[in-house]
Hints:
Layout lengths: L1 H24 L1 H7 L4 H27 L5 H22 L4 H30 L7 H26 L4 H30 L16 H7 L1 H22 L1 H7 L4 H20 L1 H7 L2 H21 L3 H7 L7 H15 L2 H32 L2 H41 L3
Amino acid sequence: MERRFNFQYAMVHGTYWMYYGVLSSFSSVFLLARGFTNSQIGMIIALGNIIAVIVQPLLADFTDRMRRTAVFTVSAAMTLLLMGFTVPLIMLRGNRVLIACCYVGAFAVMMTLQPFCNALNRMLEETGATINFGLCRSLGSLFYAVLVYILGIMTVKRGESIIQPAGIVILAALFITFIVMRAGYSGATDRGGEPVKAAGRDAGGNIGIRQFASRHRMFIAVCAGTLGVYVANSIMNTYMAQITANAGGNSRDLGTVFSVLALLEIPTLIFFNKIHKRFPCGKLLKFSGAAFVVWIGICALARNIAAIIAAQFIQPFALALFLPSMIAFIDDSMDRSEAVKGHALFVTMVTAASIFASLVGGLILDRMGVKPLLTAGTVVAAAGAAIIALTIDKAAAESAGERKKGKQADGTV
């Protein structure tokens, strides 16, 4: 059972991130070919993210109130909705309003689905199985790398019309995976009785936002720094097609860049637990923040595709290290009741960075070009990395102090 659940969970990440490659990574290729400007592309992606921010907590609350298998059912339903938005993109040509509406809808649903995919980790572990999140998530990077490489080649040969049909095939595989997982989870819990309860305090988030903010002022500062470095990450992901074109590349080169970037994530994801045991999260986040600056800075100076590809070798020390380090930092430094809000604030900053980078980045591209965009991204990333370096240790100490106070109040120390 454990091996089967790990395989199925890996397939969820594999197919989800393949579709992400179709819709997000090749968004500029597809939408530019349909007559959209860079500013309009930024507005479409930003609007999709804004809708996702609004819908996701409401849908999560609705799902929590239903049967435990509802997370599988809702995820499968969102996959069908994604198909509903993606199919028209294959047929629509001249109607840019409808194309924009379908793209916004698809992007919003895709981003809303992402935390549901992550939540399946704990759901499956309620059956008593041990899920290797890092390994399963690394398969997502591997599948994504293969997909964007092949899609880059096919787009050069057949044009942008090949992009969305590939997405439909991937969504069909994702839908089947959700259905199979739901049946397996139901069978496991039916045989084993009630789901296994997670150890530790209830993660119900029993403190208010203001109380959380007063307890974790330095962590909020860290999240402000996170906003800065993720602006750089969003610029690179959203406008890599324009970046490669500026360096003399085409869609095939775009696929190669994204493929190299994704493959380089895998070792860090797989071995993060061992890295974490040797180095504290604070040091990892400082190092990773600096790596973001180097990553986008090299791209700002790059004059050819070879230099763009070379810059991606910073990726194992940038996003691939930053994301699990931040998650581990929150889990290690906060009580579970507080960690819920810590994770929510982190996700909010990441989404805000994507919205900001999409809107402002598109305007800078249209009015000034690629190099000013990457230069601005480097400056913002440097400011974010500096904030993280100055506040992360204070945030850890502050959280440790709050946990000590909590234990004293409970009479456990």
